[in-house]
Amino acid sequence: MDFTLSAEQRALRDRARAFAREVLAPTVDELDHRQEFPAAELRAAAELGLTGLAVPERHDGRPADALGTALVYEEVARVSAAVCVILSVHNSLVAHIVERYGDEEQRARYLPRLARGEILGSYALTEAESGSDAGAMRTTARRDGDGWVLDGRKRFITTAPYAGLFVVFAVTDPAVRPADGVSAFLVEPGFPGFSLGPESLKMGLLSSKIAELRFDGCRVPAANLLGEAGRGFRMALELLDTGRIGIGAQAVGIAQAALDAALDYSRGREQFGQPIAQFQAIQWRLADMQTQLDAARLLVYRAAALKDAGKPFAREAATAKLFASEAAKFCADGAVQVHGGYGYLKEYPVERYYRDAKACELYEGTSEIQRLVIARHLLRGNRGEIA
Ligand SMILES: Cc1cc2nc3c(=O)[nH]c(=O)nc-3n(C[C@H](O)[C@H](O)[C@H](O)COP(=O)(O)OP(=O)(O)OC[C@H]3O[C@@H](n4cnc5c(N)ncnc54)[C@H](O)[C@@H]3O)c2cc1C
Question: Strand ranges (DSSP E) for 100-245?
């Protein structure tokens, strides 16, 4: 597989790198400490087209292929994993699903505003009782006159307090759920019967916000059914395959940041009369971090390249997400260790990497679910191109 970057991909990566260094780096720690949403930073991202990666030009987007998108997420996460997860849900889940399954009217109504960053997107699948087992969702939608009525609760919804568009999955036909009995809806925060529940406080990604969504007889116009009724569960799963490449790329960005920090610190910190980088124990740790990072990056690029080539990539995306999120945790842990006690202080960013890396093992399918997906593909005889 050839990972030579095209001129467009290199330019996009450089644009994202400059944005991360110039716009995100100055505020990332302060926003994390204050647990503040990065509103100004997202406006700057929008000006650079980073909110329109999944939107075609005719709807004001700056479309990127899967590898280009992964490069953006990697560069952004290298500085702010919180901004990365907001952009990844917005682009790879919300804008992507509207572009892929929306009708012309829905695309024209939502894509330009998503692309220009005038509204942010949220993706609402998880509920209190249904996480990994998404098909067990309880939120319902019933047809009523000229629209639908939604009832239920969603939990863990990234960007919920700031979103202007929610993609919401609900059961429309309990008899054939989940495969044919779930539908997707485009919900705006002003729709009657919709309200935000409490925000959940969390371990990391502190400037990205998650909250509960409440649907109490929420009226959704018929025109806001996304795709065919009953196809929502298949759409959700298909989208998550793409989303996983994004989370893998996010993990690679965190792992790179952790290695950069560990390398820097080990050169400057002296103990026993010499830089700690001179100790073989430190060198081996750095070497192991680099090795994990290289492997993770290659797996993410492979999954993205397969998608760009129009080939099956679901197993490879799960493999990349699984490995890269474990690599991010490994590298963040290594970076804290190399920093010694200072790694545990807020004075250095490595404790943030450690907290942020953990999330990659949880959302868009836990590591156990990735293993399940990979094993299912293997048992079906899909061993990939290289086997
Ligand atoms: C920071 C953050 C942001 C999120 N953002 C969103 C969002 O924007 N939209 C959204 O819809 N959701 C979001 N989520 C929810 C996330 O996708 C779920 O938390 C995740 O799918 C796991 O579900 P759960 O938490 O209910 O865990 P559970 O499914 O209850 O799992 C608990 C444990 O059991 C394991 N387990 C479950 N089933 C199996 C199995 N069959 N085999 C082996 N082990 C199993 C799991 O791997 C895990 O270790 C977010 C979560 C977090 C932490």
Answer: 121-124, 140-144, 147-158, 165-171, 182-187, 194-200, 210-221, 225-226
| Number of folded domains that form the chain | 3
328-339: average pLDDT: 98
**CATH at 73:** 1.10.540.10
What CATH number does the domain containing 261 carry? Answer: 1.20.140.10
What pTM did the predictor assign?
Answer: 0.97
Among 94, 119, 144, residue at a domain's last position = 119
User: Which DSSP letter does residue 178 get?
Assistant: T
Q: Clarify whether residues 206 and 248 are in a common domain.
A: no
Domain membership of residue 145 as a residue range: 122-230
pLDDT at 121 over 90: yes
Where residue 157 sits, what CATH number does that domain have? 2.40.110.10
* 47 catalytic per annotation: no
Confidence band of 4 (pLDDT split at 50, 70, 90): confident
384 domain-assigned: no
Alpha-carbon distance of 20 to 9, in angstroms, equals: 16
Q: Tell me, in angstroms, the distance from the centre of ligand 1 to residue 98's CA.
A: 24
Q: Are residues 165 and 80 in the same domain?
A: no
- Do 348 and 372 belong to one domain? yes
**Which residue's CA lies nearest to atom 25 of ligand 1?**
131
State the Cα–Cα distance between residues 313 and 255, nearest whole angstrom.
23
pLDDT tens per residue, range 248-292: 999 999 999 999 999 999 999 999 999 999 999 999 999 999 999
Choose one of 80, 98, 119: the last residue of a domain: 119
Q: Which of 310, 276, 357, 323 is nearest to 78 (CA)?
A: 357
Name the pLDDT band for 385 (thresholds 50, 70, 90). Answer: low
123 lines ligand 1 (CB under 6 A): yes
| 115 Cβ neighbours under 8 A, 6+ residues apart | 49, 51, 52, 55, 59, 60, 61, 62, 95
* Ligand 1 centroid to residue 362 C-alpha, Å: 6
Q: What is the pLDDT of residue 382?
A: 79
- Name the active-site residue from 36, 47, 364, 385: 364
**Of the candidates 71, 51, 78, which has an alpha carbon nearest to the alpha carbon of residue 63?**
51
Which three-class secondary structure state does DSSP give residue 70? helix
Residue 197, SS3 per DSSP: strand
